[in-house]
Amino acid sequence: MADEAKAKGNAAFSSGDFNPAVKHFSDAINLSPTNHVLYSNRSAAYASLHQYDAALSDAKKTVDLKPDWSKGYSRLGAAHLGLYQYQEAVSAYKKGLEIDPNNEALKSGLADAQSAATASTSRARSAQPPNPFGDAFQGPDMWAKLTADPTTRVFLQQPDFVKAMQEIQRNPSKLNEHLKDQRVMQALGVLLNVKLAHGGGEEPKPVTEPEPMQISEEEKEKNEKKAKALKEKETGNAAYKKKDFETAIQHYTSAMEIDDEDISYITNRAAVYLEMAKYEDCIKDCDKAVERGRELRADYKVIARALTRKGTALMKMAKCSKDYEPAIETFQKALTEHRNPDTLKKLNDAEKAKKELEQQEYFDPKIADEEREKGNECFKQQKYPEAVKHYTESLHRNPKDPKAYSNRAACYTKLGALPEGLKDAEKCIELHPTFSKGYTRKGAVQFFMKEYDKALETYQEGLKHDPNNQELLDGVRRCVEQINKASRGDLSPEELKERQARAMQDPEIQNILSDPVMRQVLTDFQENPKAAQEHTKNPMVMNKIQKLISAGIVQMK
């Protein structure tokens, strides 16, 4: 659930929808409150919204949770920089570079912070007397007020005015330098909620009539088209949410015709076609979006989104065509543009579906039986490597055949590949728990590995299903002989040393020897006969003692 919310947040962030991104990252944090990446991502989203206080809080949380992660300090530096806390930003970027000295983002951030700090110091040295009205430009609501008022809203489209506002916000004394700018005076009046009169010099225009932007007719027409196209897109989005797909298509198409420099209209229409199961139309739109996006040098994330949508349509079609390769290739191309978690998941799902389909198509019990018989003939001729090949092919054709696993386990045992033989024998028992051959194969492997107590348990388990099986009975007898040999102390020094070394690598033996209760039991057997007598009445204790005897760790005299 947290990963799903995170993926939605990443997708929203990539498309520039920062408020939804914050919401999705917050949902993910509620589900996984110790995940440092989630706080980092939300910090970036807050910073993109210019909500630097919130960005700073999340950045600090990121660093607290993962102090050795360089990106956390990058988020911290960016938040401080947004709040004009230049020295703190420099410190944050430097800490990040101590962890990752070659991180280009940290290097770039540090250079920006140092440059801003130097400029701030220079301004402070040559600062003019503070203007009493400078405080009006402080606070995060300055931009909201200027945007809300119709007389200043138009100024925000003028870069020189925005730059002047930013300078005054950073350094209120800068207001003195801009008092001759009637736009700044107009903004001051809006922020103070008063109408300011102007005296001296050229008669200014009324404050209710701000200086109009000087733009060409061509630029004006272009802006009008974009606004009209955007309105069509918004209407299409509303229809899409209501599942009114035909109406949505009409509006997205209109937006495309009005403005052909925004490929989001094409990808949105592709999304509608996808919902309508018109997969070929969806694919055509996605190809068109990618082609046009490359012509316009669009953001690689937007192109990746179009490719991912195409891959999704191809996956839907693959359920009928049984051809997953085109979808896999498309998802891989999308990931080369932008590594998005949602796209990666779709790629993994496509590859998994392809593998399952291949297994289904290859499944053929008849050919599997033929290959197993070929393996049996090779086994009789002692051609064990060839037999393994045939048994393996048999299992490819029918992965659920316990006999093939049993026979291949016997081959591996003959070849001395005991771990592989043990694995096959256990798989055989898993598939057919009452098949005695599985137990004889497993017991034989364990016996050759000199794990006599384990082999004895395996043979005894097999006898529960087939009490008269002579092979299992013989296995029990051989194991008992070896265990008794250890109990009597009849092992040679070399045999004892080898068995002890092997036993000390056995997790079960390690657990017994590290158990404080069993350590006390062993001490009692040596020093306290009365207590030892009581221990012999405990079946669990004696079972563990017997394992230590079989392993050569303990000898009874």
UniProtKB/TrEMBL annotation:
Its main location: cytoplasm. Transmembrane segments: none annotated. Keywords: Acetylation, Chaperone, Cytoplasm, Nucleus, Phosphoprotein, Repeat, Stress response, TPR repeat. This is Hsp70-Hsp90 organizing protein 1. Residues 139-178, 506-545 form the STI1 domain. Co-chaperone that forms a complex with HSP70 and HSP90 and preproteins (e.g. chloroplast preproteins). GO terms for molecular function: Hsp90 protein binding. Residues 110-138, 198-232 are annotated as: Disordered. GO terms for cellular component: cytoplasm; nucleus. Residues 217-232 have a biased composition (Basic and acidic residues). Residues 113-128 have a biased composition (Low complexity). It is found in: Cytoplasm; Nucleus. SMART domains: STI1, TPR. TPR repeats lie at residues 2-35, 70-103, 229-262, 368-401, 436-469. InterPro entries: STI1/HOP_DP (IPR041243), STI1_HS-bd (IPR006636), TPR-like_helical_dom_sf (IPR011990), TPR_2 (IPR013105), TPR_rpt (IPR019734). PANTHER family: HSP70-HSP90 ORGANIZING PROTEIN 3 (PTHR22904:SF533), TPR REPEAT CONTAINING PROTEIN (PTHR22904).
